[in-house]
């Protein structure tokens, strides 16, 4: 068995860990009947942030980065994938504390940004840092529970979901994909999905799932994948996984202006180089 296959073997400890995650969630359900995993997981994070805890993407106390610059590289990556005109209406689905959103708010014309999240708790932490900009640029902010219909009326040209898809519990997948496709209802509308890929579905942390690329493609139908931006591979809980941003387009009979502006990244060379490096590292560990 080669080292990558070995690392992907389902280990007993991973199974035990998954049981533990579910036990905690089911315990939570007893006092929150009818609740869903995202509410449980978000509440857990809100409690940690309220105690002054650090987070990679949420709140103002980020690991290794200032809030104002923490989301810039992701923002640039998304802009590289779709050369977005200032008048395009952008929906940031799972906007969290506006770490990436703030750069779109500044870049787009007034009123052209809509940030949605499960909870306002995260959003308010971003507003604390950037309240003036949010107000001056007439950025719309809301929760998925209360403001989905308003986001649909917003008539987005493009929606992005950064660091979200890997946190979607399988039981919430239907709702997630239905919502994002409902928001981008216009022909040629674009959805940029940041995903974690693995040849078969794995749960690699309490709130972390990876799926094969064709799973995402099926869920996104009738949208078509028109771009695949490889980010980087990583190794966690015994699995080798890859990060991607997948570019999807809602089909249309005519060609749109946005379509002409999409610059697809065909960086196969970079992808192959990363995989080679990963294989070498794995071989050296044996
Ligand atoms: C890791 S944070 C990323 C925040 C932001 N996109 C960023 O990259 O800075 C994950 C976000 O996903 C949101 N989230 C979790 N489950 C979700 C769901 N089912 N639908 C939409 N958003 C969800 C959380 O509330 C949280 O804000």
Describe this structure in words.
With 286 residues, this protein is α/β, with parallel strands linked by helices. The protein has one domain: Rossmann fold. It is 45% helix and 20% strand. It contains twelve helices and nine strands. The strands form two sheets. It has a seven-stranded mixed sheet, sandwiched between helices. The protein has a two-stranded antiparallel ribbon with strand order 6-7. β1 (90-93), α6 and β2 (113-117) form a beta-alpha-beta unit. The radius of gyration is 19 Å and the shape is globular. The protein binds S-adenosylmethionine. S-adenosylmethionine (SAM) binds at residues 38, 42, 57-58, 71, 94-96, 99-100, 117-119, 122, 144, 162-164, 167-168, 172, 176.
- Could you say what the CATH architecture is? 3-Layer(aba) Sandwich
Which sheet architecture does the biggest sheet show? 7 strands, mixed
CATH fold topology: Rossmann fold
Radius of gyration: 19 Å
Mean pLDDT: 86
What small molecules does the structure contain? S-adenosylmethionine
Coarse shape:
globular
Q: What is the strand arrangement across the widest sheet?
A: 3-2-1-4-5-9-8
Unreliable sequence segments = 1-12, 259-270
Strand content: 15-25%
Q: What is the element string, with H for helices and E for strands? A: HHHHHEHEHEHEHEEEHEEHH
The number of E-state strands comes to 9
Measured between the Cα atoms of the first and last residue, the distance is 12 Å
Number of domains: 1
CATH top level assignment:
Alpha Beta
């Amino acid at each position: 068995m080669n080292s990558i296959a070995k690392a992907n073997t389902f280990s007993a400890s991973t199974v035990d860990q998954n049981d533990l995650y579910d036990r905690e969630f089911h315990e939570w359900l007893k006092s929150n009947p009818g609740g869903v995993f995202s509410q449980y997981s978000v509440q857990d994070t809100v409690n940690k942030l309220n105690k002054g805890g650090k987070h990679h993407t949420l709140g103002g106390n980020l690991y290794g980065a200032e809030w104002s610059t923490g989301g810039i590289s992701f923002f640039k990556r998304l802009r590289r994938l779709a050369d977005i005109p200032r008048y395009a209406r952008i929906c940031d689905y799972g906007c969290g504390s506006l770490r990436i959103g703030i750069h779109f708010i500044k870049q787009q014309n007034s009123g052209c940004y809509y940030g949605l999240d499960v909870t306002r708790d995260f959003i308010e932490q971003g507003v604390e840092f950037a309240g003036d900009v949010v107000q001056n640029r007439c950025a719309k902010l809301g929760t998925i529970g209360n403001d989905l219909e308003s986001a649909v009326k917003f008539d987005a040209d493009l929606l992005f979901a950064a660091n979200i898809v890997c946190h979607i519990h399988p039981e919430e997948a239907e709702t997630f994909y239905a919502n994002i496709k409902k928001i981008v209802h216009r022909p040629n509308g674009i959805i940029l999905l940041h995903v974690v890929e693995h040849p078969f579905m794995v749960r690699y942390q309490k709130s972390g799932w990876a799926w094969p690329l064709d799973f995402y493609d099926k869920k996104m139908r009738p949208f078509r994948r028109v771009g695949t931006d490889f980010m980087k591979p990583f190794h966690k809980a015994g699995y080798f996984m890859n990060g991607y941003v997948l570019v999807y387009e809602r089909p249309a009979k005519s060609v749109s202006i946005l379509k002409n502006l999409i610059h697809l990244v065909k960086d196969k060379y970079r992808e192959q180089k990363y995989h080679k490096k990963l294989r070498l590292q794995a071989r050296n560990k044996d």
